[in-house]
Amino acid sequence: MKKIGLKIGISAVIFSILIVLVISKHTQSIDNFGFATIHGHLLGPDTPWMLEVTYAASPALWLGLINIIILYLFFVAKRQGRALYLALWLDGAIIIATVVKTIVGRPRPIHQLVLDHGYSFPSIHTLTATICVLMFLALFKTHNVKYYLFALVGVLWIVMVAASRVYLRNHYLTDVIGGATLAYLWTNILWYINYRWLRIIK
Q1: Closest listed residue to residue 126, CA positions, set 168, 70, 182, 66
Q2: How many helices (H) and strands (E) does the chain have?
Q3: Transmembrane region positions (predicted)?
Q4: Does pLDDT of 60 surpass 80?
Q5: Which runs of consecutive H residues, i.e. helices, occur in 74-140?
Q6: Where are the domains of the chain?
Q7: What separation in angstroms does the CA of 192 have from each of 2, 66, 157, 183, 195?
Q8: Which pLDDT belongs to residue 105?
Q9: How far is 59 from 42, CA to CA, in rounded Å?
Q10: DSSP sequence for 51-67
């Protein structure tokens, strides 16, 4: 419990700092570093697979898939507690991120390679990818080689999604960091609630 509390505290501080920096418009150096690194050093000028990554990580797609699983658990498997917990995990995170987007009201970067609408901070693509990876790791935790291999692949997937959003100029670097941090914060809050009171997932 103390370890989870520490994770909540650290991620809450990081996310709060990001919000303050974004609102006060003090993220230019960080965000310029993100654009310069991804466009100038990591990727060439023509990287079509970045578009495929951002499409594959569509929040609508993963929201639909996870909610189909949730409906199965609720109505067929009769595991209503787990179904509602998973719904709160993903759907709740997206709702929170949407509220934060509206409150912060950060415009998206200019010169987008693929047009996207709405506010920029935090990145819901990155948040959704992080939540899904953390969800699968938590539900299928076995501490064997396959688990750690999946964890590595999951982290690489989150990085790829975040990089694609910055590469396409749909988000700033601080947006994708904010999305991943919010996902980690929300996950640990739910884990705390689970261990403290619910015991739905062991």
Answers
A1: 182
A2: 8, 0
A3: 53-76, 83-104, 124-140, 147-166, 172-193
A4: yes
A5: 80-104, 124-139
A6: 2-198
A7: 9, 22, 26, 14, 5
A8: 96
A9: 25
A10: HHHHHHT-HHHHHHHHH
